[in-house]
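Our preliminary data section would be incomplete without showing what the modeling component actually yields. Below, a chain of 423 amino acids is followed by its predicted structure, encoded as tokens that our downstream tools consume directly.
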Amino acid sequence: MTRLVPETARSLSRSVSRGIGRVTETALGPYQTAVVRIGFSATWLLFLLREFPHRQELYGPDGPWSWDLAQQLIADNGAFTVLMWSSSQVWFELVYVLAVLAGLLLLLGWRTRTVSVLFMVGVLSLQNRSIFMGDGGDNVLHLMSLYLVFTRCGQVWSLDARRARKARARMALGGDPAPDRVGPVLWVVLGVLLLGGIAAGKLDGDPLVPVILWGMWLVQGVWWVVARPGQGGEPRTLLDIVGNLVHNAALFVIMAEACLIYATAGWYKIQGSRWQDGTAVYYPLHLDYFSPWPALSDLMSSSGTMVMLVTYGTVAVQVAFPFTLFNRRVKNILLAVMMTEHAVIAVVLGLPFFSLAMIAADAVFLPTSFLRRLGDGVARARVRLLARLPRNARAAPDQEASGAADESAVDETAQPPHVGFTA
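Predicted structure:
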């Protein structure tokens, strides 16, 4: 017995050391954070593009939720939105277009450290301007836009990763990586804009907002100076450790948030009589607003068995999902069921962006092996697509496609070097 105690202590100590080393030395889940980045940026981008003809009614200064009402509400809740800086129509159009651009750039993974902050500002600005214009998915997007800022979501499947791969190839051949000119210029421009906003008194509402924005701006500058190619030493190592810790903590928060959403929704449904007798599913199928395909809605609601299965199946899946994380196989099966359910909701109830937001949140639990196969499949499809184009319309597709395939096959524990402002 006396020998077992030291053995157990040493084993526990080794396990703790390995865990600490893994959390500090590696940004975990590069494929999961990449697919979350792509999912939420695509959801936001598609929403803004679809609602572009109706943008005035949703968020414009002359919309139903008027400028005065928005001012009164924001004065009470202290929400952040740059749309309240001016009632000018030009300012509204500029913010809307920049929100679209930020969503597109984050989807492509271009300068993800900086663009993720701009993406967050765009989401908060538009949603806080008119908080009654969402369908539930906007709340998830609102939260995830905050969490994505703290993740290294551009390690794979991004333009940043491709730029880092090219820099590694040049350095492997004995050459010097191309100097990063875009990063410093972008940093200076954003600093000037932030300084102008403070000088104009536009950030006087919540004192934490300018502190957070200035902090992010300074971190960007310090990271670029220390993490340039060829730089090393203790400052670089320290920044890598801090960056990994922040990334892993944000990834854990994203996973916990998804579990919390399902757990609270499931247990809330159990307490309500409408989910016990099936009316919570039956009545929405007969509302015009939630019936884009009336024939399909009538077909589902006409079967009592179908309504019962959907009702109790939804509650069971939502309540059980957080507990299935301890069993990989059961979790993957339940994850496929939930994603299928959200796809059905998108079609039957006409809530595509709510469903896309929830599927993007669910994607953080997808296994790495599946995501790698998905990336390989996309790379092969890209090769076949480029092969059908005229020869003068494709420049060295084989080289780029092979690079994309190599990128999707990178080991999860590999830590890409940081080039400029890449993630």
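The radius of gyration is 24 Å. The first helix runs from residue 4 to 25. Preliminary results of this kind motivate Aim 1 of the renewal.
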